[in-house]
Amino acid sequence: MESHAFAAAPAGSPRIESLPVEPLLTSEFDADPGSVYQRLRRTHGPVAPIGLMGVPVWLVLDYREVLEVLRSESVWRRDVRHWRARAEGRLPKDWPLLAGYEVRQTMFFDDDEHRAARRTYHSAMRPFQDGHTPEGWELRAAVARYADELIAMLAAESGTTGFTDLMAQYTRPLLLMVTTKLFGCPVELGDEMVMDLWRMLDGGPDAGAATARASAAMTRLAAHRRAMPGDDLTSYLLLSDPTLSDEQLGRELFMNAVYLNDITGNMVCNTLLEVLRGNATVRRSLSAGMIGETVNRAALVSPPVANMCFRFAARDVRLGNYWVRAGDIVSPSVAAAHQDLLAIGTSHIVDSTISTRAHLAWGAGPHQCPSAARELAGMIVTTAVGRVFEHFTKAELTLPPDQLPWRSGPVVRGLRLLPVRYELSDRSPVRRPVPVPRRGDVVALAPAPHTSDRQAHGLLSALRRLMFGARRSH
Ligand code: HEM
């Protein structure tokens, strides 16, 4: 890549507004994004002009260019106010992606404001980062316990052999339970918030209203924890930065809830899928007991954040075969960059059991997923995946992999469902599950020593309706 620092684009080099653009979000992209990236790369090189719901955007496709954009914060800005088309009022009215980018929170801060927010996250998340602190240890134990309880509930509902959707009946409820624990949600707020996050992630007709309610609930949670601090992320964020208003903390919590549920959930299911579809190197690392490596390999093939959040050029800059103008919008595509990396290919990345940490699934540069969040999410994913293969002797996809339904948006690529036929291991303790709680049951699932455990059991019984009641028809 040629980079001409501080040079202005030469007269006559095309502006994105003057180029024909191919809309990205098509049914072909839904089914097979890889072939779309390849075609764009063949036509345009490492950077391609595309249309996103009627707005022209530069899609960055090659590994080297994606890394360059992610790393260089002086050239590639996050604050939406740098976007020229927005400043000049040229965006279509109600462009659906704009509202999210207008929300002022860490992901869209630059410079000092961003560095201060990162410091707040760093100290607030540190207690949960590993199992060496009481909070970290308790959270780890809770994740494993919730996973076991969900599999026990599955055994009670559907038998020790049967069919399940590992997205709706395992991954999603697991992460919602983890969210209430990590965020310190009181029961009266937790249940409804979790139901609304479920509706939001489901993307059904009530998703818009549910999103607004969930986001308002985060502000109430912030106010609650300001008044009654506990050993949870919300309280620790306030401890790190007492100047955070309830509204600002609510916005941060909401963004974290999306990462913790949607993105982490996709990483769990994408990893399970790579194992189930028989990806040889992924399976090899799993049988070698290298589960962290299994997750890395799956992230390389199928990163949960497929295309990173937008960046805006601070000045004219040459990228790939084009000149990107100051104020242009770019979307760095991690999925395309991984495809490029695998093609450069180097069979040692794909074939060996040596680490594949070159993946960009956690991002890179100053906005990379904070290290404590990476540790935390990595622990959740490895526990969730590990418990499935510990309890099940058999798990087979009930649909051919190329017929699985995907949710392909401008940012995230995740499965809508992960249907499997399973058989529980003879040795699995969940073969003899304790009775499953139903809504209104007086008897708890098991004696629960901590308030938070009783809370999780209550939540589990509320979630049961969503997990086994209306089986979705996506
Ligand atoms: C498997 C799960 C996760 C993945 C794959 C992931 C991935 C990412 C990526 C790619 C970014 C950078 C986005 C960009 O540069 O455009 C990011 C940022 C971030 N993530 Fe994660 N994340 C995960 C889980 C989490 C969790 C569980 C939390 C918190 C509880 C979290 C908190 C954050 C925060 C606060 C940022 C913003 C950092 C900044 O802008 O400086 N993430 N994450």
From TrEMBL:
Q: Which organism is it from?
A: Streptomyces phyllanthi
A GO molecular-function descriptor: heme binding
> What InterPro entries does this protein map onto?
Cyt_P450_B, Cyt_P450_sf
Print the organism lineage. Bacteria, Bacillati, Actinomycetota, Actinomycetes, Kitasatosporales
The family classification in the record reads: Belongs to the cytochrome P450 family.
Entry's PANTHER family? CYTOCHROME P450 YJIB-RELATED (PTHR46696:SF1), P450, PUTATIVE (EUROFUNG)-RELATED (PTHR46696)
SUPFAM superfamilies, per the entry: Cytochrome P450
Q: What name does UniProt use for this protein?
A: Cytochrome P450
